[in-house]
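hey so i finally got around to running the thing on that chain from the lab meeting. sorry it took forever, my laptop kept dying and i had to restart like 3 times. anyway pasting the input first so we r on the same page abt which one it is
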Amino acid sequence: MFVGVLKRRGWTELFDLPAILLVIVTAIVAMLAIIPVFYLLWSSFKPVALGNLADFSFTNFTLANFARAYSDPSIVTMLLHSFFFAAGSMAVAFLFGGVIALLVERTDAPMKNITYGLMFIPLIVPNALNAIGWVLLLSPNNGILNLFWRSLGFEEAIFNAYTLPAMFWVEGLSMAPLVFLMLGASLRGMDPSLEEAAFTSGAGRWTTFRTITIKLMTPALVGIGLLQFIRGIEAFEVPYVMGLTKGLRVFSTAIYVSVRELSPPDYGSAFVLSLLLVVLAVAGIVFYHRIMAQSERYATISGKGYRPRIFSLAKWRYIAGVFIGFYFFAAVVLPFSVLLWTSFLPYYQAPSMAALQRLSLESYRDLFARDIFYLCITNTVILATAVSVSGILLSLVISWIVIRSKPKGSSLLELLAFLPYAVPGIAMGFAFMVAFLTFPNPIYGTLWIIMLAYLTTFLPIGTRFTHAAISQIRVELEEAAAASGGSLFDIMRHILVPLILPSLVSGGLYLFLLCVKVVSAASILWNPDSVILSVYVLQLWGEGRLPVVSALSVVTVVSLTLLFLTARLLVVRRSVAAEISF
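ok and heres what got predicted. didnt touch it at all, straight out
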């Protein structure tokens, strides 16, 4: 309808602007999303040698890469580690994120308003920093929690940071906020009439919850579980910090070792493992969409107004508050506190009176005296700004084409924009490395190839923000502006963008945070001139520079927190101003 108004004005009769935009944007997204994956698929069936990563002839196909990768005796162990780590991370995420969502949305648990804000903080802290903090807490020899355990008279350490349970504990804590946000939305939108009918019929709370609430939430639970499992399969930071040095390899770290640590690199195995990782992720995404396609059978929302039923916890109310507080303490306070403590010491040691006398700012002086630190900051700010701005603008154009103009073929664009979600970051980084090694170009080995890899990886996330924002705006405002003589550019600049600006800022901020947090693609693509903060953290960790990496962690977390709070304040003020003006 909106495009029809523009056509009636006559200026689109010379050319079909939505169709032209569709072709241009589809071509851009296709190059970003398909070409790197094509290189992975094609090269997996080609003989690979150092200096010859791309053979595009239709001969010399081989299964040698698959035979070598799958004949490795450690492949079965690596697969088991990957699945156990992903499943355990998903379980921990549901334990905390799911339970806290239920407590906040459907009970009278204390601290409900504060909890909404607290659950965003773990999203800010990079996973690598959390993992380092928990290693310092759970190390079997000198971890603070194990030292405390021994001080009680026990001889053996009770915790071990270098085990799969410790790894999926840390990963699950970082995944819990996403479960909280997604499951909370499902609980908030559930019509409580069926629950009330069950209560009226004499069913108890537990019976109602088990037979009504859980069944109504089945699509959401299965869908969220699949997405979290996929995220666990592709996770890199926690397995790298807590598992790689002890031989606990998963998909992502096995690919990293093949490309970055073996000499010469085993690109053939990296191709095969990356392809297998992509196949597993695609299968999970397909299964997720099939589950969500059946969600209408569980729909309960109607046109009538309602409020979700709030259950009284009675004497369990404060226990619920303790549970919420424990999550925040474990996810943020404990790991950050040990990093803060270590950053003031000349070397890592447990808290004691003797250690208090050694506190100093030497680690911070050492950090700020390093030229590479300022290079990392500059590169990270440039990278995050470029990805967040270009990513949210490209997402905005994609969403406008798909939701507003809807030309023929727009469904293909939507599919292509979501496709990178099924390509794990470590595989995307390797795919871009191979793709840009096959022809002369000016961006290989620079910060811009990392930017392209991150832009592609995070594009599905950006479109979720813009899709939701544009869908909430009635098209009549844009039609009225078009009928009054406004051009498409004027309509976007004066109508659409101002109305959805809070969502654009939120989406851009989240992409910015992801660029600072996520290291998987950059771990493959970086070089000395394009190193970023997340990569530098892993470098310092590998060198054993615990005080310096702790100081860098504190600076990073404090800076990201201040950035997040400032941006959120601006978004809230803008939202209030928009409501007043309209």
